[in-house]
Amino acid sequence: MEEKIRRAIQKAVSGGRRNYVIFPFGEQGRLFKRILNDEFGRQEALIIDSGKRDPESGVKRFEEVEPGFWEDCTLFIVSDHTEIYFELRSRALQYVPGKNVLDVLTNEWGTDDALQGILTRDRTRVFFNPVLRFHDENTVEALGNNTGNLVYVEALREQLDYHIEARLTREWVGDRLGRGSVVSVMPASNFVAEYAVWCESLLPILEQTDMRFTFVGLGAQAGFHETPRDVVAGLTEGQKRVFRAVGEHAAQIGVRGEFTAACMEEMGIRNVEVIGCPSFYQYKGEYPVLAEPAADRILYTADRSKKEIYALAGQHDSCLVCQNHEDSPGGAETIFYDFKKWNDFVSGSGFTFAFGSRFHGNMMALRNGIPALWIAHDWRTLELARYLGLPHLNYYDEKFRKIRYVEELLEYCDYGEVYRKYPGLERTYRNFIRKNFDENFRK
Fold this sequence. Notes:
Blueprint: H1 2-14, E1 20-23, H2 27-39, E2 46-48, E3 59-60, E4 74-77, H3 85-93, E5 101-103, E6 108-109, H4 116-119, E7 123-128, H5 149-159, E8 164-166, E9 181-187, H6 203-207, E10 212-218, H7 228-233, H8 237-249, E11 253-255, H9 258-266, E12 272-274, E13 298-301, H10 307-313, E14 318-322, E15 334-335, H11 339-347, E16 353-356, H12 359-367, E17 372-376, H13 379-388, E18 392-394, H14 398-401, H15 416-436
Parallel strand pairs: 1-2, 1-4, 2-3, 4-5, 7-8, 7-9, 9-10, 10-11, 11-12, 13-14, 13-16, 14-15, 16-17, 17-18
Antiparallel strand pairs: 5-6
């Protein structure tokens, strides 16, 4: 964003523009002000933000400015939050002539569409992020009440070379996505589930565009007693129509494992590729050899009902990281709403072993070189562990039920299968991304 800001300012300066206005005045607006003031030696004429401000702060709202001012100004829309970009631009154009508005994201003057410069490419790559702008406990519901979803979304952000990151909304259909060839992906979790009726809201969006679109890491939510036919029977007709529509827009749908693939086939969807989870594919080629697990300092995850996991972890210096507010049995909890803070905590706390029933809690440990053992309690975890070769135990199996001491878990934390399978799995995943999104697998 810094380079886009510099180019926008240079464009305005070289064109003799004046009366610079910054809008909005969030984190990137403050960055713009610093670059404008310190690097270009120019002072803004005005700062605009929609929120309520102290009049002495110098930040105003549009309606507080004399109308005549806007005839000879340069208003910079300073944001790369593309999911609200149309809203910002629409707000600005209620007051400012289009010829005086410069979109910092595209460095275009007076365009009819804030993203025209990007969307008229021969091929536009869009990353639809379902948790974009998620940042605190007040929005935990946006993550399906599971902060673990931050992990696989961040993995895709690390891997993909995309032009635009946005939320999949009605603003992203029709003419805006019809001007060029658009390919897009959306990381998915347990969308194939009876409770995930929100998926029906995607249907009118998909029906209004011919863009290429696919899910990455789609999973089915089911207990061990359920079959793929049972899962599909529990879906609404609207949900089934959504998955079929995605199948029509995609070269392939990327699913977690064979169980989810069977659910797709039950709905008549056959252009499916089993890929596991994006969070697993941190490395190219070989998987690095991990340190031997030890019970010195243990990280664990579990939902509140998994009492055996809590009991085992309680025997040692163990740390519980919750993925929602219900995970903690005693009310005291460690929970993260920011990927970087979570990652920094795991990497810097000296953990020597991780285990538990939360797939992405364990994956966060593994991504930091900490050997982890998955305790699978339903199909969503088991199919991933099986496909990826991750060490795991079935929570309901006698083998796990007989364990009395946490040290016994260490013997099951064997990564031999991961080392053997990873090159082929990574190659399959890389080919899936290339086929469905872009030939450049990683940034």
